[in-house]
Amino acid sequence: MNISVVVPLFNEEESLPELCAWIDKVMQKNNFSYEVLLIDDGSKDKSWEVIERLSSESSNIKGTKFRRNYGKSAALNVGFAKAEGDVVITMDADLQDSPEEIPALYDKIAVGDFDLVSGWKAKRHDPLSKTIPTKLFNWAARKASGIYLHDFNCGLKSYKNTVVKSVEVHGEMHRYIPVLAKWAGFSNITEQVVEHQSRKYGITKFGLERFVNGFLDLLTITFVSRFGKKPMHFFGVLGSLMFMLGFGLFAYIGGVKLYSMFNSLPAQNIAEMSGFYIALTSMIIGVQLFLSGFIAEMVSRNTYDRNNYHVEKES
Known about the structure:
By secondary structure, the protein is of the alpha/beta class. The chain is about 50% helix and about 10% strand. The chain has two domains: about 5-225, Alpha-Beta Complex (Spore Coat Polysaccharide Biosynthesis Protein SpsA, Chain A); about 230-300. The longest helix has about 30 residues, at about 230-260. The chain starts with a strand and ends in a 14-residue tail after the last helix.
């Protein structure tokens, strides 16, 4: 099979028939063998009834329904597990992603041999309240991840099948699938300008809180990707530096006190000096950080996937 199209959705009953018909038209025109995986993330409208009808009319359409709303990451993770196509393409169900982009995205993977192609909506039909935070978010993601994409959050992406089988998307990490892919060893990542269409039906399912959650997730994935397998390298170094800073300050204060005593010079009581408490606090924090790293290292060494390395080829 050439292509698996994974479509996570929530309350999109109006757009689904038009979207599936549009996808089928593009696939037939380009002679692609394909499947469409519609992942209903606990919709409250009649989306599942529409999916059942569409799947009964076409063997290319398959549906999965969650009991409740788990989020886009969970829907994508299930879709990735079920995808059988050589190239996996994700897109949103609100018709803001155009199926006409599918052939070019497919060629980038099948012919260009990229691991992942991320869509870039260079011209967006969104208000400034969304475009400005999006630009800031993408700038921070580029700096933190080292992956220079203009639009991390674009739902229109294409992947090699091996990529989606090698990453686990959870929480709200769908924004950072390129980072997860790079972490798994798939560094041949590029982007392609795609058309952003105005929403035709319904309302957006995301509010401004997604930007706050996005930055928190960025910090999480940056830390986990760099120190997930070796937490002691972070906590141990930081704890050691804090302890040595506190110990050095304490040694200086104590040395000055002893010098004053032996030379019969007036000296302030150590317990009355603010530097003493700063030094003591630094040493305590340093020990706590070091112990945190030690405990995290023990936990890491006992996790089931501690030796879960991604093997590309064997002979």
